Please model this.
Amino acid sequence: MELYILRHGEAQPRETGLADGSRKLIAKGKRDVRAVVKLARKAGLRPDLILTSPLRRAAETAAIAAGLCHCESVVETRSLLPGANPQAAWKEICALRDVQQVVLAGHEPHLGHLIAFLLEAALMVDLKKGALVRISTPGKSGPPRGVLNWMITPKVARGA
Model:
């Protein structure tokens, strides 16, 4: 199984009166996500399913990925909220049937913890906004035993 961990693009700043869950992507954030997903498509990204945090900026990121990847299955899940336990996301992934590629759209620091959990390694990942990480796992039972294949950041996708 191929897991693609996608951090949401740059969103509206935190402001008084604007609920965190309502913050939407700004134009730069949308451009960054598009550039990263387009490059990932060239590297074989063909998701069967996109799981997303219900927060607006992650859901918008997932929608961009779904459109570019022609993926009609986008599902919101609380297991990708910022404070969620990485094991909850793994449990949800393990329950999926007939799925070979999954995109998980969410937030830091949760996604960094999820990556460490999937790789079964004590590490920290500098996951930039709009970045995408590909991890391969041998199966969906037991520990993930993931292998890090690559990471695409917006800067790399733009060729800068």
Remarks:
- Helices lie at 27-42, 56-69, 86-94, 110-119, 154-157.
- Residues 2-157 form a domain with the Rossmann fold fold (CATH 3.40.50.1240).
